[in-house]
Specification:
This protein is 65% helix and 0% strand. With 120 residues, the chain is mainly alpha-helical.
Length: 120
């Protein structure tokens, strides 16, 4: 990915985004606040993988995987804004799933509950 001046400025302020492409680093950050077997961790984990699979073939205009955007957005919310609400974190990972994939809002509600679905 080509680093623009804007992207360089963002990465300077939010160095944790350089880990946005690393699944293990992402989940290490989540595990600092939610134990790996907790319902909170599991909800974020399920949203991560549902979104990853749903966006597997989708690319951004820049050519990067669309999922990278979703993971980075969640990291910004989690680390920079310090939002550690698993519903909001799951919603962040799923925020484009209805408009950009074959998922329906009903499917989101079945898989993640009414609160996540209403946020998506």
């Amino acid at each position: 990915m080509k680093k623009t001046k804007f992207l360089e400025a963002v990465l300077e302020k939010m160095p944790f985004l350089s880990e946005a492409e690393d699944e293990k680093a992402f989940f290490r950050r989540i595990a600092v606040h939610f134990p790996r077997l907790s319902p909170e961790y599991r909800m974020i984990n399920r949203a991560y993988y549902a979104s990853h699979v749903a966006f597997e073939e989708v690319k951004r205009e820049t050519g990067e995987d669309f999922f990278t955007h979703l993971r980075a957005t969640c990291l910004i919310q989690f680390e920079y804004l310090r939002i550690r609400d698993p519903v909001k974190n799951a919603t962040c990972l799923l925020h484009d799933i209805v408009e950009d994939t074959s998922w329906t809002i009903e499917q989101v509600e079945i898989e993640f509950g009414e609160e996540v679905a209403s946020c998506v």
